[in-house]
Write a structure and sequence with these properties.
It is a single chain. By secondary structure, this protein is mainly α. The protein is 78% helix and 0% strand. The chain has nine helices and no strands. α1 (2-11) crosses α2 and α4 packs parallel to α7. The longest helix has 26 residues, at 39-64. It is elongated and about 60 Å long. The N and C termini lie far apart (47 Å). 34% of the residues are buried.
């Protein structure tokens, strides 16, 4: 899968072939086909691994931040999410670019459901006490996280925009979460 990302970054999705990926990985095409029956399956597996990495980072921070004040939860969440999503900007951007070609929406929806569940469980433990349903809060926060990451990945220089958009995201979420407590 790492070879897939390397080939995607080097030649783009249009020129990615299983032969190129196998060559980059140092294996035969036949060996590659034992694990991935076609290019689409290879891309799906690579995208799934990336999205699961982000999901795992969010679930981990949600467990760590339980019962902490909402501003602390939010800051840790934003940093964990953006850290996982933007750890390797080129990888994230190239996988984002192929996601619509390999049913990335279904992969993202499955991970999103788990992320929203972890967020709702974390927010339910906030000492400030939510006045809104944790699932609703989790859904809004998740949408904001996804929207900012999409904006970053669609920009020409995500690394340059990341610090500013991180601060704006924190401002947005902190303000929203203040409306969710009594």
């Amino acid at each position: 899968m790492q070879a897939t990302i390397q080939v995607l970054v080097a030649v783009g999705k249009e020129r990615l072939t299983t032969t190129r990926v196998a060559h980059r990985a140092g294996v035969s095409v036949g060996t590659l086909y034992q694990y991935f029956p076609n290019k689409s399956a290879l891309l799906q597996a690579t995208l799934r691994r990336h999205i699961q990495g982000v999901q795992t980072a969010v679930e981990h921070v949600c467990r760590l931040e339980r019962s902490r004040p909402l501003p602390d939860m939010t800051t840790a969440l934003v940093d964990a999410y953006l850290g996982a999503k933007m750890r390797n900007v080129k990888e994230s951007a190239v996988l984002y670019s192929v996601s619509s070609d390999v049913d990335g929406m279904a992969i993202a929806q499955a991970a999103g459901k788990r992320v929203r569940h972890a967020l709702a469980e974390m927010f339910a433990t906030a000492p400030e006490g939510l006045t809104k349903e944790p699932e609703l809060v989790a859904s809004v926060v998740s949408a904001a996280l996804n929207g900012i990451s999409r904006r970053l990945l669609e920009s020409k220089s995500p690394e340059r925009h990341l610090p500013v958009l991180r601060e704006e995201l924190l401002t947005l979420l902190h303000a929203y979460l203040r409306t969710c407590v009594g």
